[in-house]
Write a structure and sequence with these properties.
By secondary structure, the chain is α+β, with helices and mostly antiparallel strands. Helices cover 29% and strands 16% of the residues. It folds into two domains: 3-59; 75-165, Arc Repressor Mutant, subunit A (Orthogonal Bundle), CATH 1.10.10. It has five helices and seven strands. Strands 1-2-3 form a three-stranded antiparallel β-sheet, with helices on one face. Strands 4-5 form a two-stranded parallel sheet. A two-stranded antiparallel ribbon has the order 6-7. The termini are far apart.
Amino acid sequence: MIETLILLTPIGLMLFRFSDVGVRWVEFLRTDSNAIPTKLETASELTNEIARQVNLYFSGGLRRFSLMIDWQVIKGFQARVLRLVADLKFGETTSYGDLAVRLGQPGAARAVGLANSKNPCPLLIPCHRVVASDRAMQGYNAPNGIATKEWLLRHEGHTIINHRLVDNQMPLFNFEGDRA
């Protein structure tokens, strides 16, 4: 059975769809009435655990989600990309190009970006931590787009000016163990 949970967060309403296998879908909701489901079922233990971890993340008390993701709904190249993204730690960033290199496909930065844009579980699979190679913000699939991505990165300790990471607190990570 698929269950639904909607949480109010500092960046707006978030919808979570999950089963006993794990979280299948996370969506940043628009605030118009058509975006919010009329029937919500929230009966499982997982409901409370999702709410607890999300609230802890936004209050600064959680750095890594331990919620199970239902990887059955993510296939092929996208699954390979998102598994790498899921390993990014709180405050750590990487680029689309670095992910492509890590996948053994150095010319596939755009394909990595496309895979990120279709991430079914943003926040839990932290695609907001992936930026352009020049540290510029790229699109983010949320009602406020890049502003939401920037909010999340600031929440994780980054400084952003003119839609670009400018801090040296958490250098760009290139998956080779080197810091840029």
